[in-house]
């Protein structure tokens, strides 16, 4: 797949928006568009902004100047890669504009600060001996956040909290409707965290926010139709980007790809069915096969790949072969239904593709077949929890990006939701 130029990626980002108007009534929209471009591209030149938006140079300069004053972007070195005319000033997202990302799971609570542009700052993985309760998650996050605040230099601002949940989340108020592996049902975690941290909190499913991160910054950055499939301690979830937009469904629950049926008469699933992908393809089976101690699960991929190089690894190879076959069944259904051009595998699902190179691709492209499976590519998300944490931050950044000046003005005037500390 040919990688498009940066100008082409910028054009796609702004496609379909109402650009090119210099009237004062569109200033908020134009300010939002410029900030979104700088954020998603992790830096662009003034010349690129001018070409992409159709706004004149003086308008771009004024918009950039306002974003600089708001502390959301910084002007840096000249764009020396520009081939014609004078080098243009580069505009980069400010590292001082931050979101707090939180991702609880059955054995760890991951917390990190993420700056505009998708840069992770001092991530913390707080291991637990069992699935944490909602009050325990609130206490853990509050303690970790308190420590993070004291280490940040003056001038940094926390815009809000993005909460990635391994389960179903009410898109209206962030209530965890059900996170079966955590034993949670109808838990107001978002509201409790907001009260504890005095920050706005937005929650969503972990795999869905992972898909968002992949589409904005990761393997699917230049792809309009992709499926992100994430395997973690709490099972397998998914997110779907179609036509460049995240599919949410009628009530916000689209993307439950872990419940794709892959085996008749299979293992019981938490959804009440049997033979679902997440019931048949599990991280725990791999952990047990390599004898990985509790608290070292982040090293699972390395441990599996190392074990496969040793004698006596046939039992592990059999497990991987079985999981690959069942994952292929699920992927065939996903591809036939959604016709993506790319599938991005994250979490422990990366291991299956690395341990059996080309097996999934070959299974999708059965000899003689044509149609949706013909050209789908399989890519691996970065190792670790980064896409989930980056995607969670996107939840917190979205209200800011939609209306930069209005968001900051509203929260600066709201004494109950302090955003700055110094």
UniProtKB/TrEMBL annotation:
Region (Disordered): 1-28
Polar residues: bias regions: 15-28
Bias kind Basic and acidic residues: ranges: 1-11
SUPFAM superfamilies, per the entry: Actin-like ATPase domain, Winged helix' DNA-binding domain
Matching Gene3D superfamilies: 3.30.420.40, Winged helix-like DNA-binding domain superfamily/Winged helix DNA-binding domain (1.10.10.10)
Similarity comment text for this entry: Belongs to the ROK (NagC/XylR) family.
Name of the protein this chain belongs to: ROK family transcriptional regulator
Organism: Arthrobacter vasquezii
């Amino acid at each position: 797949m040919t990688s498009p130029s940066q100008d082409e990626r910028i054009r796609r980002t702004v496609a379909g928006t109402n650009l090119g108007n210099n009237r004062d009534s569109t200033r908020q929209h134009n300010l939002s568009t410029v900030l979104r471009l700088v954020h998603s591209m992790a830096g662009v030149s003034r010349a690129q902004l001018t070409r992409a938006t159709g706004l004149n140079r003086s308008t771009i300069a004024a918009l950039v100047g306002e974003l600089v004053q708001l502390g959301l972007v910084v002007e840096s070195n000249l764009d020396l890669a520009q081939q014609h005319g004078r080098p243009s000033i580069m505009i980069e997202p400010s590292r001082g504009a931050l979101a707090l990302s939180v991702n609880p799971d059955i054995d760890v609570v991951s917390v990190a600060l993420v700056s505009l542009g998708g840069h992770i700052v001092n991530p913390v993985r707080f291991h637990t001996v069992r699935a944490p309760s909602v009050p325990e998650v609130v206490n853990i996050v509050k303690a970790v956040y308190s420590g993070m605040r004291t280490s940040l230099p003056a001038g940094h601002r926390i815009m809000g909290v993005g909460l990635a949940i391994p389960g179903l989340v009410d898109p209206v108020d962030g209530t965890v409707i059900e996170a079966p592996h955590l034993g949670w049902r109808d838990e107001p975690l978002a509201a409790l965290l907001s009260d504890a941290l005095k920050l706005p909190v937005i929650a969503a499913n972990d795999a869905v926010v992972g898909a968002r991160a992949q589409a904005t910054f990761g393997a699917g950055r230049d792809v309009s139709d992709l499926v992100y499939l994430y395997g973690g301690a709490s099972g397998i979830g998914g997110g779907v980007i179609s036509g460049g937009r995240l599919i949410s469904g009628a009530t916000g629950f689209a993307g439950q790809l872990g419940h794709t049926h892959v085996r008749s008469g299979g293992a019981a699933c938490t959804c009440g069915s049997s033979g679902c992908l997440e019931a048949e393809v599990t991280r725990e089976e791999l952990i047990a096969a390599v004898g990985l101690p509790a608290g070292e699960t982040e090293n699972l991929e390395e441990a599996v790949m190392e074990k496969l190089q040793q004698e006596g690894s046939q039992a592990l190879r059999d497990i991987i072969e079985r999981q690959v076959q069942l994952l292929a069944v699920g992927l065939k259904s996903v591809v036939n239904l959604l016709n993506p051009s790319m599938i991005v595998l994250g979490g422990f699902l990366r291991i299956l593709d690395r341990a059996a190179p080309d097996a999934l691709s070959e299974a999708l492209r059965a000899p003689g077949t044509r149609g949706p499976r013909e050209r789908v590519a399989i890519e691996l998300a970065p190792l670790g929890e980064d896409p989930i944490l980056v995607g969670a931050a996107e939840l917190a950044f979205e209200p800011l990006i939609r209306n930069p000046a209005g968001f900051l003005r509203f929260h600066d005037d709201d004494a109950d939701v302090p955003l700055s500390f110094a």
